[in-house]
From TrEMBL:
This is PTS fructose transporter subunit IIA. It comes from the Bacteria. It holds the Pfam family EIIA-man. SUPFAM superfamilies: PTS system fructose IIA component-like. One of its GO terms (cellular component) is membrane.
Amino acid sequence: MSYLILISHGQFAEGLKDALGMFIGDDIKTVKAIGLQSGESTDQFQNRFKALLSEVGKGAELFVLGDIIGGSPLTTAIDVLNQENLLESAVVLGGMNFPMALNTAILKDNATKEELITNVLREGATALKQFEITRETEDDDEI
């Protein structure tokens, strides 16, 4: 079975998981979320991440999205994945946003790792846009 693990500072990962549930329904069972809480040590976070990994079980395919590459939550999780000999088989991406999480949740069971990485990174980047108001001209109203 494959799992999507969302990792963040604070409650971001849990909130993102909640929003994903509105789009992926029962597949939310294969999404896990964990965040380094304010005042929590990295050792405490590491223990909670180890417990989360024990929930998914050995042999699970892991797709990990973190909020910031180089941030304490993701680097701690990577350390644990490495200790558990899971890092080489896991896909780890940073800069997590909703389109990345949604695409990973949808593609993780049906695409190759390479296809998933390409599509998820493209969708995450494509979603970054400035909202602009466009005004209709008077000619548009006459049609």
